[in-house]
Amino acid sequence: MRGIDVNCDMGESFGPYTLGRDSEVMPHITSANVACGWHAGDPSVMDRTVALAAQNGVSVGAHPGYPDLLGFGRRKLDCSPDDLTQYIIYQVGALQAFCHKHGTPLQHVKPHGALYHAVLEDEELGRAVARAVLQVDPGLVLVTLAGPKGESMSSICREMGLDVAREAFPDRAYNADGTLVPRGSRGAVIEDPQEVAARTHSLARDNSVRAASGETIELEAHTVCVHGDTPTAVELVREIGHRLQDDGLQLRHMAQLTN
Amino acid sequence: MRGIDVNCDMGESFGPYTLGRDSEVMPHITSANVACGWHAGDPSVMDRTVALAAQNGVSVGAHPGYPDLLGFGRRKLDCSPDDLTQYIIYQVGALQAFCHKHGTPLQHVKPHGALYHAVLEDEELGRAVARAVLQVDPGLVLVTLAGPKGESMSSICREMGLDVAREAFPDRAYNADGTLVPRGSRGAVIEDPQEVAARTHSLARDNSVRAASGETIELEAHTVCVHGDTPTAVELVREIGHRLQDDGLQLRHMAQLTN
Amino acid sequence: MRGIDVNCDMGESFGPYTLGRDSEVMPHITSANVACGWHAGDPSVMDRTVALAAQNGVSVGAHPGYPDLLGFGRRKLDCSPDDLTQYIIYQVGALQAFCHKHGTPLQHVKPHGALYHAVLEDEELGRAVARAVLQVDPGLVLVTLAGPKGESMSSICREMGLDVAREAFPDRAYNADGTLVPRGSRGAVIEDPQEVAARTHSLARDNSVRAASGETIELEAHTVCVHGDTPTAVELVREIGHRLQDDGLQLRHMAQLTN
Amino acid sequence: MRGIDVNCDMGESFGPYTLGRDSEVMPHITSANVACGWHAGDPSVMDRTVALAAQNGVSVGAHPGYPDLLGFGRRKLDCSPDDLTQYIIYQVGALQAFCHKHGTPLQHVKPHGALYHAVLEDEELGRAVARAVLQVDPGLVLVTLAGPKGESMSSICREMGLDVAREAFPDRAYNADGTLVPRGSRGAVIEDPQEVAARTHSLARDNSVRAASGETIELEAHTVCVHGDTPTAVELVREIGHRLQDDGLQLRHMAQLTN
C-alpha cells in the first residue's frame, strides 16, 4: 500500500516566547521535527513537544540547527565539519533523552534552516552531519531534499550506510528540473490548502508534481514538509489526510517508507 | 576488598578558553564529572573529554549545571523544579550521546556548583533532579554530599529508587558534626597533597576523617572529590593512588561501591 | 498643573519571536521601558523600539534585567553586587547608543522582573544598581515601587543623589498598608480598563487609591505601570488618557515630575 | 614628529575564563581593542580593562564581533547588513558607558575576527559597520587593513566621512603586492621580537616593510597590531618602544595620526 509521510517543524517556542500551533497541527501529521534548543526550543518545550507527539502517535525527529537563537538558525555559520559533528551529536542526544522519558523512539534527524541548505552545498558538511547521526544511532533516518539538489547528500548517506528520507515541499513551486523556485520569485509559495493537498496526493500516488512551467515532473519523495505557523496550517494538514484517504493512500511514518 | 572512588570535574573548557589540566589528571582518577555545555564545556570539549576518559578507563558522569556560563554555574538561579528536571534531562542526554559514540556507559550524575548546594537545601529541587536522572536512566548513580547536610538528598534518592554515591572532600576541613568548614574560614582548604592523600586513605579504610577540632569523626563516603585546576592537582591524584595501594586498598569506580 | 506618567515595558521581542503590541500601545504612553537584550530584546528590536518611541514623543528608559533570556529575567540570579553594577552599565550603555542614534535622550532606568524585586529586598543590590545608573549618567531617573516596600530603595537613591520615580500599579489590588496583594491571591489583578483608568486618575489627582479592604490609602506615585501584552492594553491606555483629561490632569513624562 | 600607534586586543577573558596577559602588555601599547561581550569579554572584564587602559594612558577602542562566543567570533555568520549595524551600535554603546565611567573617551572601533575580514570582502557589510560607527559617534576612528585589500573599506569610510586608521601586522609576512601571506603558509608568522620591532620601526619611519620575496614594499600604516597572548608578547611591545625611541620616533595614539 502506497503512502507518504507528512513532517512539520515543532517545538520552536522558547522561554516566554510562543511560536507555531503545535497542539492543533500535531494530530494531523506523522513526523515532528523537534527543535533542540540551539536555534529554537528549550528543554521544557522539548519535553512538552515530545509528549504531545507521543500522545498523537507522531514519530519524533531531531531538528538540530546552528547555535544562533537570535537568527533562528537561518544564517549560515562557517563552522568546521568536526565542530558540526559534535553540535549534531549534542542536540540529537539531548532530544533522545526526552524520547526515552516519553517511551517513544527517535525516528529521524532533519537539519534545520541554514544547516539544511549547507549540507546540500558542501559535501564535507554533509558527511559531518551523516557521521554524527550514525554515531548517535545508525538506525535513524536522515531527511534531505528530494530532487537534483539533494542527490549528493543522498549518495553520501547511502555510502555511509544511513537511511535517507527524501523530502518534497508541496507548498513550493518547482522548476522543470526538479529544483525549487527560489522564495523571492513570483509564485514561489502556494498558499491554497486544496492545491497543496492535491500536490501532496500526486507526490504520494505518482511520484510526480506539476512544475511552474506546466509539465509534470518526476519527484520521488518519502515525506512532505508542511508549515505549522501559517493561518491555514490546520486546514491544510486536515485536507492532506482527506485527499490521500479518498484514493486509498495513507499517511505513513517515514521510517516505514525508507526501510 | 575495600576501596574508594576519586572523582574530578573535567571538560570545563569552552570554545577558545582552556580550564583545568584534564589530560594530566585523567590517568589518576576513577570518575570524571563532565560539564554539559550550560555552565561550562561545549560539544567539542565533551567529545574530547569522554574520549579521554574512555582511553583511561575512567567512568563518565554528567555534571549538569544552571544555564549560566558567565557565572560558571556558581550562582543560584531561582528556577522552578519542573524546569530544573528538564534542564537535567537535556544535559544528561547530550552527554549520553557522546558516551554512546565512545562506547562507554554513563555512570553517574553530579549536580554542579550552585545546583549541588541547592538540592541539599531544597527537597523539591532535590526531587526534581532525582526524577530527571531516573527518567533518563534508572541505573545511574547520583552523587551527593556525605555527612549530615547530604542526608535529606540521600533519603530522597533511596525513596525514589536511585543509587547514591556519598562524596567527601579530603581537601576541605570538617566540623565535628560532619559538616564542611565554610570556604571563607581559616584553614578551610587543605593544600598539602600528602595530607589530602592521608585523609582520603582514612576515609577509604576507616570511614572516618579528622575534624578541624582534632577529634576523629565518622564519615561514610563512596567517592572523594579532587580539584583538577590547582598547581598540585597531578601530584595529589598520584599520591592518593600510592597511599591507598600501600595499604591494600584500591581505587574503585563509584558504581561498584554503590550497588 | 498635576499629572502622572504612564510607563510600559516595550521591545520585548527577540529574533524570530514577537511579544507585545508595541506599535499600538506606544502612542498612548509617556515612558517606554526598553529591554536591553539580556532578558528580552535584541539590537534590532531595540533600534525599532527607540525609533518608535521617538516618533511618538515617548521618553525612553532602559529596562535592564538578569542574563536569563530563557527565564525572561523573572528568576532571581544570585550575582554579586559588583557584577550587577557592571551588568546594568553594559545594558544601559547599549540602549543609550540607540537613543543617541535616534536623537532622543535616555530618561530613566527601571530594573526588570526579578531584579526589580531584588533591589527592594537587598540594600546592597539596590546600591549596586543606583551606582551603575549614576556612573552612566547622574541625570537619569530610577524607577522603583511606590509604597512602603519601595522606601528603602528610594532612600538609597536620595542619599546617593539619584532622582527617583515612584511607581504604582493601578491594575493591581493594594493592601491597606500600601503593599501589593500578591499575584496568586483572589482579586490581585484588576482587568476592567475603566476601573484601572479610574484608579490611575485617583493616583494622579489625590495621591491615593482604594485598597482591597475598601479604605482609601495614600500612595504618592510619579508614574503608573501598564502592561502592553494584554487583550485590553490598547483600550486601557486610551481610557487612562481620556479619564485624566476630563479632569484637567494630564499625562506627563516622569522626568518632569521628579525634578 | 613621526610615530606610530601600537594596538592590541584586550579584555578577551570571560566569566571564569582568563585569556591574554592584559596587565603586563597594557603599559607598553597606545590603543586597546576591548572585546564587547559578544565574541569574548563580559561587563566585569570590560570594566576592569577600560580602567586598566585609563590608568596606563592607553586609548580605548571597541572590538565588536559576531554573536559567537563559542567560536570566538572567528567564524563568518551570514547576517544582514541591517542587523550588523545594530549589533555594532549595541556593542560600541555598551563599551562607551564603561569609558564614560572611567573618564576616558572612546577612540576607535576595530571589527573583530571574521567580521574584520567580512568588511574587507563585502562592501555592503563595510557600509553597515561604518554607518553604525557614525551613528554612535562620528568622531570615532575605524581601524581597517593597510594595503590593497583594505582600500575598498578605506574608501567607503572616507566617502561617508569617517576617519580611518590603516593597520599593519609586523609579525606577519607580506607578499610583494602588499597583501598578507596566508596564515597556513611557511613563514607567514614572524616570531622573533627583534625582527617584529624592526619591521614596526620601518613602517613608522619609512612607510615600508620588507616582503617575503625580499623587496621593500610601501605600506602606509597608522597603527600596528600586536598579539597579547603569545609568550613573547611583553618582550615584543617593550622592544617596539625602544626601537622607535632610538631613532627619534615615538608611540602615538591613532587618533593623533588620523586627524
- The structure class of chain A reads alpha/beta
> Average pLDDT across residues of chain A?
96
Which protein chains make the most extensive interface, counting residues with beta carbons within 8 Å of the other chain's beta carbons?
A-B, 25 and 25 residues
Number of contiguous helices of chain A: 9
Reported by name, the CATH topology of chain A is TIM Barrel
Report strand % of chain A: 15-25%
CATH architecture of chain A: Alpha-Beta Barrel
Principal-axis shape of chain A:
globular
* Unreliable sequence segments of chain A: none
Rg of Cα set of chain A: 17 Å
N→C terminal distance of chain A:
14 Å
CATH superfamily of chain A, by name, is: Glycoside hydrolase/deacetylase
- Order of strands across the widest beta sheet of chain A? 1-2-3-4-5-6-9
Question: Number of folding domains of chain A?
Answer: 1
Number of strands of chain A: 10
Largest sheet of chain A: 7 strands, parallel, barrel
The CATH class designation of chain A is Alpha Beta
Written overview of the protein:
The first copy, chain A, has about 260 residues and is of the alpha/beta class. Chain A has a single domain (about 5-259), classed as Glycoside hydrolase/deacetylase (TIM Barrel). Chain A is built from nine helices and ten strands. In chain A, the strands form two sheets. In chain A, strands 1-2-3-4-5-6-9 form a seven-stranded parallel β-barrel, surrounded by five helices. A two-stranded antiparallel sheet of chain A has the order 7-8. The radius of gyration of chain A is 17 Å and the shape is globular. The model of chain A has no long low-confidence stretch (mean pLDDT about 95). The interface of A and B includes residues 37 and 44 of A.
